[in-house]
Amino acid sequence: MPNLPTLYATIQKNCHISDGNFAQDYGLCTYLLKMRQLYRWEKKLPLTAKLSQQDIGNWLMAREQLWGKLAAESFDCIPVADKCYDPFDTIAINRVLLPQGLVYSGGYGHFGKPLFFIGCLHQHEWREGLEIFIVAEEYARDLTAPPAMSQNKMIFIRQEALRQTLWENIEAWNWKKAENHFVQLLEIYQAHQNLEAALDKMTQDEIDSLIYHEIGEVKVGQLLGEDWEKMLIALAGTKAEWFARAVRDHLADCLVTLPRILEQAQTSTLLLYLANLKGIRKALFPSLLTACQQGLQTKNNRLSLQQVVNKGQNYWLTVAQSLLDLYQTHPQESTQLIIKQMEQISL
Predict the structure, then answer these.
(1) What CA–CA distance (Å, rounded) separates 93 from 75?
(2) What is residue 100's DSSP assignment?
(3) What is the distance between the alpha carbons of residues 60 and 75, in angstroms, rounded to a whole number?
(4) What is the pLDDT of residues 277-293, one digit of tens each?
(5) Same-domain pairing of 118 and 189
(6) Cβ contacts of 216 within 8 Å, gap of 6 or more
(7) Domain count for the chain
(8) Does residue 234 contact residue 338 with C-beta atoms inside 8 Å?
(9) 189 and 326 housed in the same domain
């Protein structure tokens, strides 16, 4: 095995380089929220711990100074077993690390931002020809930590990031005195009695849905072809990118995630899905929101949700193909054309 502290430090440096180049792409509120997430993770603070504004302010200034120094540097190769690998050669790096109980990923996220992490392997399995890694504690990570990611035929589920996301959702629901389905969700998990236990149970319940969403993402990628990824790179950092990703999310969910949730017929799983339906995704698919809410009232009403899901499979595939056509036929104007088209679309 390599020198683990050196390995972790190298990956973390690459994370800093990426953050230094892309942190400015986030809006102020999103940026501060992500910085708070990163601070908690780095300091190994409980999610419920109160943060010292002075401490986090000093840390933030020091981190931004570090990013400023590193932003112009190139990514370092990853030192593993007497070799140094390209940081995006995830398959080769994991071939060495997995037998040691470690998982690595180097890929791209929103805005075309490079994303890196390394963590402890919790579970390794295969589903529908896809290799799935469930990751527990992480030893290096970016400012951005998606709970789930797909890369080629690999799916990464990050438990720490998922648990943190669920905690922040609970905070938001409590602040906003949110709708009844959020209240019902918290009651089912008895969050007001034991928040830590509730978060653990929510995290485990959500993992399966995340896996099936990522399976759906892979299937959508096969349907749309390589030009879809090229389009996302071309649209990176624009509203058109968010629209395109929302369309792909809805298609993946209608093809795989929601049928799986309907098979399970568990109220808690549907509530978790509904709780995460927000932003552009929520605005584009109002009929899904209505059908989910009706499906929570009685089991018979889940028939309407099945009908919406069936309709969504064809609808969002057609929309996705139309966005791809705009990109292929009008590459220079595709950003504005996609925004204009999507502002008139909803199901």
Answers:
(1) 15
(2) G
(3) 22
(4) 888 898 999 998 888 87
(5) no
(6) 251, 252, 253, 255, 256, 257
(7) 2
(8) no
(9) yes
| Residues 187 and 294 both lie in one domain | yes
The label of the residue with tokens 């509904």 reads 274
170 assigned to some structural domain: no
Residue with tokens 């990109």: 327
Taking only the tens place, the pLDDT of each residue in 223-244 is 999 899 889 888 887 889 989 9
Q: How far is CA 114 from CA 21, 31, 37, 165, 166, in A?
A: 10, 17, 18, 20, 24
Q: Check whether residue 202 and residue 324 sit in a common domain.
A: yes
- Cα-Cα-Cα-Cα dihedral of 135, 139, 143, 144, to 10°? -10
Per-residue tokens: 31: 């940026």
Helical spans, DSSP H, in the chain = 4-22, 28-43, 53-70, 90-97, 159-176, 180-188, 195-224, 226-235, 239-252, 258-264, 267-275, 279-284, 286-297, 302-329, 334-342
At 103, the amino acid letter reads V
Tell me which H or E stretch contains 139: strand 130-141
Q: Which residues contact 268 (CB under 8 A, 6 or more apart)?
A: 185, 188, 189, 205
Expressed as residue numbers, the domain containing 269 is 178-342
Question: Would you say how long the chain is, in residues?
Answer: 347
Question: Would 172 be classed as within a structural domain?
Answer: no
How far is residue 216's CA from residue 38's CA, in Å, rounded to a whole number?
29
DSSP string, 89-124: -HHHHHHHHGGGTEEEEEEE-GGG-EEEEEEEEEEE
Query: Amino acid identity of 145?
Result: A
CA atoms of 138 and 301, how far apart (whole Å):
41
Same domain, 11 and 138: yes
Lowest pLDDT segment from 22-26, 84-88, 236-240, 295-299: 295-299
